[in-house]
Amino acid sequence: MATEDPQAQYFENNPAPKQLRKHEALVREFIEYHISTNPETRIVLVTSGGTTVPLENQTVRFIDNFSAGTRGATSAEYFVRAGYAVIFLHREYSLLPYSRHYSHSTNCFLDFMEGSAGGDVVVRQEYQMKMKQVLEEYQYAKKNRLLLMLPYVTVNEYLFELRSLATLLQPVGSRALFYLAAAVSDFFIPRDRMEEHKIQSSTVENGKKTGNGTQLVINLDPVPKFLSTLVHSWASRESMIVSFKLETDPNLLVSKAEQALHKYGHDLVIGNLLTTRKWEVVFVRTGEERWVRVPKAKRSRSVSGIEELVGRADKKKDAAKKDEVDL
Ligand code: PMT
Known about the structure:
With 327 residues, the protein is of the alpha/beta class. The chain contains eight helices and 16 strands. It is globular. InterPro entries: CoaB-like_sf, DNA/pantothenate-metab_flavo_C. Its EC number is 6.3.2.51. It comes from Lithohypha guttulata.
């Protein structure tokens, strides 16, 4: 029997991604490994990057969501440092933990190296210390199997993956953390309305040419809000759920974060503004609003940005009372 619930309808009407079963098997194995090695291990699901909305089934064009994956990739490194095993659900080709230090488009990784004719290629002297530290952390995470990378591209893939991962994490209970930093599309084209092939520039709709043949009119449906279902049904009641709120208008940020907290009933909303997201965030919990800011003087030379600061502020309770926390 067909269901009225928009979330359930979504999964009935849209196809499961091809890689879902494989990802589920990897996650099951990852969780079992960590629980059997150390039953106290905490596991975090970090979502990162932006989802796409394809316009065609055989996709040539798509609508994208803003996010480089910096927040998610950086946070994943700090979670590993803090002792978590990390499931990193990320947009394919967005920034990854560890390699993010060398993948910025203005910083080609080859610029970090040098080599003479006939000699070895080596890391340049000035980058040795930093690269050694990143390499050691990367090797530590790899050796201890602390990082499981799962890519997605579309909003549909993301939602199916999120539902599966939350369900698989249920036995982890209060040692599971959801850290939802991905930028998730709010609108999409349902499968039954999606073109199979590349949309032609002269499109015929209902027997009529749309516009003068140069206009493309796209009709999008809202993506059902999944945070509430995640909190109340997919995830264990004992797990901790942290969502992010991105706004561009400073006057809206805190009230929208409070609304989300109230509406979805989860643990914490971290608010950030598009233009200042690397330097300041606001933690919104029931009855509490706490800003964490990188001091102005340290903004340009801070490599790790606000994620490092948040880690330190959490350890240092006094710091929580200050507006700016020193790095
Ligand atoms: O990667 P960077 O370039 O470093 O950028 C990081 C970031 C700015 C993307 C990140 O810090 C951030 O703010 N991520 C959340 C952005 C976002 O999607 O905000 P939103 O207001 O659209 O969604 C808020 C929450 O609702 C999210 O937790 C989302 O998972 C959830 N949601 C969204 C859409 C939807 N259909 N259902 C949902 O449940």
